[in-house]
Amino acid sequence: MGIKTYIERVTDDLYVLRVDDANIEFFEALWEIPEKISYNAYLLVKEDHVVLFDGWKAEYSQLLLESIGKVIDPRGITEVVVHHVEPDHSGSIPEIARVSEKAVFLGHPLAGRMLSSFYGVRRFKPLQDGAVADFGVKARFIHTPWLHWPETAVTYLEDEGVLLSCDAFGSYSLPPLFDDQADFTGLERAARKYFATVIGHYAPFVSKALEKLNKLGVRPQIIAPGHGTIWRRNVDQVLKLYANLAGEELGGEATIVYVSMYGNVESAAQLVEKALKERGLKVNVYKFTDKARASMGDVLESISRSKIVVVGASTYESEVQPLMRYLLGIICEKFSYRKKLSFLVLSPYGWSGTGGKKLGEALRGFGFSRVEVVEWEGRLTDDVSKRMLDALERVL
Amino acid sequence: MGIKTYIERVTDDLYVLRVDDANIEFFEALWEIPEKISYNAYLLVKEDHVVLFDGWKAEYSQLLLESIGKVIDPRGITEVVVHHVEPDHSGSIPEIARVSEKAVFLGHPLAGRMLSSFYGVRRFKPLQDGAVADFGVKARFIHTPWLHWPETAVTYLEDEGVLLSCDAFGSYSLPPLFDDQADFTGLERAARKYFATVIGHYAPFVSKALEKLNKLGVRPQIIAPGHGTIWRRNVDQVLKLYANLAGEELGGEATIVYVSMYGNVESAAQLVEKALKERGLKVNVYKFTDKARASMGDVLESISRSKIVVVGASTYESEVQPLMRYLLGIICEKFSYRKKLSFLVLSPYGWSGTGGKKLGEALRGFGFSRVEVVEWEGRLTDDVSKRMLDALERVL
């Protein structure tokens, strides 16, 4: 498939170099993303400095060099700032290191250790947290640990008001280069999904990072992330979105996620869906059936907007149904910082129930206290329906 | 999509009624089956008896009635033998019960409880284990618990030498009606995969059932299962296959299954693949990457032929990578009866390793003792490669 790249000015001196990864199906080999993802590197050309911020995935190394070459000879790169060594950004570093012989690699000390162990690249100089480098423009290097790895950092180009944020504020999908070329709603959804899948597990560190940036007087005019659109119109909105996503306060919607082998769980889920809608809640339903599967990333994105999660799966081999065990494990790990989330577990069985109980125990084990479990034998009778709606009442 | 059905004589009095489920993607909402699956019911028409053995999925109820109607008026059905109440076979029972007003439903007492709780069908008469019913021909009802549910049974038509085996000896895919119309190799693969995914967890009960059938003098000429081809040429082979699949003895092949986010795990897996091939082993590789995913059912089918399983996945958020946690959980549950299986775990990490250790602990927790774990930081160096090959040596 033809791979699309972009080279465009973000400011007078700063270029975005973006590649749209049309070959990917599963980000991190984990998240289904039919909407795809982009990798954004940035190139600062100012006075004697040619500074590359981050890069692309290994398979696009040559394309990155070609893109740089359309701005300036890549052999002239003086510094490479490595905010984050995950290979979707750093995979092209070995090629850059080979071609740009005089480039020095800069980053958090841990990034240096990773560059060495991942790629054998040792032309590294550590940056201190808060240090201001002179790249012709002042560039403040700020360590933002666990956003999304321990070495992760951002750079604030103070004179230009540009925050180079790498994973933070990144999005899935292949949106326009700049956020003023599209509606915020769709962009927000793509950023939410990225947060929920990749960064959500470290939400408390996001709050800390936002506080840190604020204390340092970082008031960006432009936020230029490593994935997706560049924020220049909705900067305040996306900062607010992150504060909201990282916080413990719940959204107002409802998420229903279920695995239905033969339709029994589905009937129960539909009953609860109806009851939730009657209470005026927006309900988002994600089905895993014999015919189709929802995307796990969409489930997480929806939960980030929800106050209640309805989970449906039958007992399977006297255990939790394996696909639901997988889904719920991820949900718990990603949302363990939102302890006020309510859960309603719907779990039928053929001859003896254990799956539902175990789902309930798993949720409580992760520290969720608002958990109701309804197990029942066989089909959805009036009695079972009543138990279900009563349980919903208790957990809402 | 057009749904294909078959009506054909198995013996003078016995018809197979088969529907090919072209709409399905995930059997049990769990197993990826691009090869699809069929549901086989059987109709015995002899003297005053019109006996239906099992049925189809609910969505094909009308089609089943139409198919029966091409042989005989379904209102004339006298008995319905319910070997197994899982809805892929029993989903059409409510419609049959509605139309065939005088039909009595027969099965293990637990099947009666399930018919009542699943469908509200109470026109039930329990059959005793070993009872011989007179359907115009002698039909011996044999309880084969956990093959694949606790109520599951088979019927042996003694005069005709036909074993109606429901899930046992069933296959995925849409093979010819009879096994003499295709090569055994492909049919065997489809039966293996069905066993590994659906029945494998209960393997010890399969051995017991085979012994029980043998003691009862069941020497079928024809094995007529609820899914896939009818065995009439390869009866001995498929009985032997089941004895083999249910036993603790390992196959001679190697299975490699890995989740590779950015290619590092893949490099390690390729190294081990080469080493295994150099030792003359047949190696089957199943990849879960950013571009494609193998099918879990194929992984299990391969393990049923293997003596060693190589598992590759990096640490993820200080835990086992979630997709591998899912895969390995299923592998352990399905093959816990094959304790002699060897496992080699390959697990890189970025800054601290835990995923590999935890995979090793999970395997040992399931009772596997031949487990080696190799964790390493960063890329595959010569030193890491050596550790890996040494570990392989110890576990082979």
- Report the strand count of chain A: 21
Shape of chain A: elongated
CATH architecture of the largest domain in chain A: 4-Layer Sandwich
Strand order of the largest sheet of chain A: 1-2-5-6-7-8-9
Q: Largest interface, per-chain counts?
A: A-B, 55 and 55 residues
What can be said about the biggest beta sheet of chain A?
A: 7 strands, mixed
Low-confidence segments of chain A, given as residue ranges, are none
Structural class based on helices, strands and sheet pairing of chain A: alpha/beta
Assigned CATH class of the largest domain in chain A: Alpha Beta
Indicate the CATH topology of the largest domain in chain A: Metallo-beta-lactamase, Chain A
Helical residue percent band of chain A: 25-40%
Overall pLDDT score of chain A: 97
Oligomer status: homodimer
Organism (chains A, B): Infirmifilum lucidum
Domain Flavodoxin-like (chains A, B): 254-396
GO molecular function, one term (chains A, B): FMN binding
Pfam family, one (chains A, B): ODP
What does this protein structure show overall?
Two copies of one chain form a homodimer. Chain A is 34% helix and 26% strand. Chain A contains twelve helices and 21 strands. A seven-stranded mixed beta sheet of chain A has the order 1-2-5-6-7-8-9, with helices on one face. In chain A, strands 10-11-12-13-14 form a five-stranded mixed beta sheet, with no helix packed on it. A five-stranded parallel beta sheet of chain A has the order 16-15-17-20-21, with helices on both faces. Chain A starts with a strand and ends with a helix. Chains A, B: One of its GO terms (molecular function) is FMN binding. Chains A, B: Pfam families: Flavodoxin_1 (PF00258), ODP (PF19583). Chains A, B: This is FprA family A-type flavoprotein.
